[in-house]
């Protein structure tokens, strides 16, 4: 019997928007997915050809890029940070909108001009995108990798700058920081393993089309 398709979804904030979209696409996890006491990491679904895994956002891309999962939903920030050759991102799902930005303490933001600097220390979860962005300005970025709460770094002397996601700007404001440059816009994407798209084409192609239609319908309704 053919192995079930594995659909990877992230644990964090994308999950709340991803679940209704999955339901519209005809995919419903089994009841234990919603049971907080259940420690399973792999779940069945209403489709007997599909299981779901719930993993950290960065790990969704890793599972799919290596073919351990066939399809998934993840932010474009994660896709761009890894830049995996085997990862195909055919559909912008039109939710999870935010941006990846540079920020620094409010009192320094006006005075600092990157064009005068040759080197900066940056706290971020996105070292590859950060180095690439600063290199495009002719500045060498030394990255301190954090997994959250980047906004604490400048006030505690860990780094002058941060590169992090910004949506409303409240987190920056409440931590005395100011956004000084936008690196890229971010939204949630459907991702598919390129090899799986060939070997499991009959199952994956209609799913991609279904998600594309749902994303288009969402855009039209907005
Ligand atoms: N403020 C935000 N507004 C909109 N989308 C966001 C925001 N923050 C994060 N995202 C999107 O949600 C994804 C997951 O973010 P989330 O904060 O849930 O993960 P996390 O808690 O940092 O990750 P981890 O699972 O590694 O702990 C991000 O990769 C991004 O695409
Ligand atoms: O501009 P805002 O609307 O304030 O949103 C931005 C915040 O949202 C994300 O963090 P999240 O809440 O996911 O927590 P995290 O630090 O655990 O990633 C991001 O890392 C920022 O800290």
Automatic annotation (TrEMBL):
<dbReference type="Pfam" id="PF01634">
    <property type="entry name" value="HisG"/>
</dbReference>
<dbReference type="InterPro" id="IPR024893">
    <property type="entry name" value="ATP_PRibTrfase_HisG_short"/>
</dbReference>
<keyword id="KW-0547">Nucleotide-binding</keyword>
<dbReference type="InterPro" id="IPR001348">
    <property type="entry name" value="ATP_PRibTrfase_HisG"/>
</dbReference>
<dbReference type="GO" id="GO:0005737">
    <property type="term" value="C:cytoplasm"/>
</dbReference>
<dbReference type="InterPro" id="IPR018198">
    <property type="entry name" value="ATP_PRibTrfase_CS"/>
</dbReference>
<keyword id="KW-0328">Glycosyltransferase</keyword>
<comment type="function">
    <text>Catalyzes the condensation of ATP and 5-phosphoribose 1-diphosphate to form N'-(5'-phosphoribosyl)-ATP (PR-ATP). Has a crucial role in the pathway because the rate of histidine biosynthesis seems to be controlled primarily by regulation of HisG enzymatic activity.</text>
</comment>
<comment type="pathway">
    <text>Amino-acid biosynthesis; L-histidine biosynthesis; L-histidine from 5-phospho-alpha-D-ribose 1-diphosphate: step 1/9.</text>
</comment>
<dbReference type="GO" id="GO:0005524">
    <property type="term" value="F:ATP binding"/>
</dbReference>
<keyword id="KW-0368">Histidine biosynthesis</keyword>
<comment type="similarity">
    <text>Belongs to the ATP phosphoribosyltransferase family. Short subfamily.</text>
</comment>
<dbReference type="InterPro" id="IPR013820">
    <property type="entry name" value="ATP_PRibTrfase_cat"/>
</dbReference>
<protein>
    <recommendedName>
        <fullName>ATP phosphoribosyltransferase</fullName>
        <ecNumber>2.4.2.17</ecNumber>
    </recommendedName>
</protein>
<keyword id="KW-0808">Transferase</keyword>
<dbReference type="GO" id="GO:0003879">
    <property type="term" value="F:ATP phosphoribosyltransferase activity"/>
</dbReference>
<dbReference type="GO" id="GO:0000105">
    <property type="term" value="P:L-histidine biosynthetic process"/>
</dbReference>
<feature type="domain" description="ATP phosphoribosyltransferase catalytic">
    <location>
        <begin position="56"/>
        <end position="212"/>
    </location>
</feature>
<keyword id="KW-0028">Amino-acid biosynthesis</keyword>
<keyword id="KW-0963">Cytoplasm</keyword>
<comment type="subunit">
    <text>Heteromultimer composed of HisG and HisZ subunits.</text>
</comment>
<keyword id="KW-0067">ATP-binding</keyword>
């Amino acid at each position: 019997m053919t192995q079930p398709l594995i659909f990877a979804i992230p644990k964090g904030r994308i999950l709340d928007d991803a679940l209704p979209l999955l339901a519209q696409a005809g995919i419903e996890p089994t009841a234990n997915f919603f049971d907080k006491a259940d420690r399973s990491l792999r779940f069945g679904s209403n489709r007997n050809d599909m299981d779901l895994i719930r993993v950290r956002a960065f790990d969704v891309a890793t599972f799919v890029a290596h073919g351990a999962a066939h399809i998934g939903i993840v932010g474009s920030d994660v896709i761009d940070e890894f830049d995996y050759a085997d990862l195909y991102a055919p559909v912008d799902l039109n939710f999870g909108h935010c941006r990846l930005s540079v920020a620094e303490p409010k009192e320094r933001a006006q005075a600092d001009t990157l064009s005068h600097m040759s080197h900066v220390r940056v706290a971020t979860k996105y070292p590859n995108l950060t180095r690439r962005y600063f290199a495009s300005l002719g500045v060498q970025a030394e990255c301190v990798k954090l997994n959250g709460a980047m906004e604490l770094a400048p006030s505690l002397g860990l780094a002058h700058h941060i590169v992090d996601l910004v949506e409303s700007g409240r987190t920056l404001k409440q931590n005395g920081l100011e956004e000084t440059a936008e690196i890229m816009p971010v939204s949630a994407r459907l991702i598919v393993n390129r090899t799986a798209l060939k070997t499991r084409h009959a199952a994956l192609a209609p799913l991609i089309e279904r998600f594309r239609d749902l994303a288009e319908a969402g855009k039209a309704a907005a």
